[in-house]
Amino acid sequence: MNTEKSKSTLVVVDYCRNCSKNLNPNAAFCDQCGGKIIKNRITTKNLLEDFNDRFLSIDGAFPKTFIALYRNPEDVIGGYINGVRKKYMSAFGYFALSLSIAGIYVFILREYFMDSIFENISSETIQNQDKAQLDFVKQLTTGINEYQALLSILSIPILAFISRIVFWNYKQFNYLEHVVIYLYAFSHINLTVYILAILTIWSPSIYIFFSFVGTIGYVIYLCYVLKRLYGLNFKKLILKTSLFALIGSLFFFIISIIVGIIMFKMGMFDELIENIKTANQAKT
């Protein structure tokens, strides 16, 4: 019969709690399902170790992945597509980590710095109509930040679809493999931008500068990744980037119209419209 004894912090385990297979006395992992055998009772240390193993991989995989995605993105992304699973963090693990850092950033921005940043943008000479528009931008920014995780999740399949269209004459990667490309690339630039944002958010002027640079960084890094993965020369890179921008702009225009209609139906423009009317009446 399987038994389990507790002795201080040590738990005697003679079968796998994941698949119920009998274990060798000194087994560290189950040879049936590969699950790690937990022999210590729960402590702060092993909770942090479990969090690290599942999400951060600070023991080597995360820093190795982060650096390699700048130096040799084709090694990380192409390796994962070709079956490499242990050398670097997985695509979904890296994406989950980027969402976690984004959540921390959004919390810090919303709770401590949102007002000061918009106060820095505004001035005493701002007109009422401009003030109404600025308030609307603030509300829109807050809304985007609130749904940042959802927007990121939705962006990946859209970017992958556009990329598959742009590279229709290349058979190297299918649609799902393009999803993997953008899970890594989108997550990587997000991690970089959000870490820089958290470090500079104390200064509105520096924060705004890095936000602007970050927007350009998205485009440059995606071009860099695609160039390395497909081995594009400069002429082909410009052609594919221009086509991507054209198709992406069309998608953005259509999505913006749909979102705008939804926002209008929800009454999100009512306050802005009323403030503009009030400002125009005051002028006359």
From TrEMBL:
Pfam families: DUF3667. The chain crosses the membrane at residues 91-108, 147-167, 179-200, 206-226, 238-264. It comes from the Bacteria. Keywords: Membrane, Transmembrane, Transmembrane helix. InterPro entries: DUF3667. This is DUF3667 domain-containing protein. The lineage of its organism: Bacteria, Pseudomonadati, Bacteroidota, Flavobacteriia, Flavobacteriales.
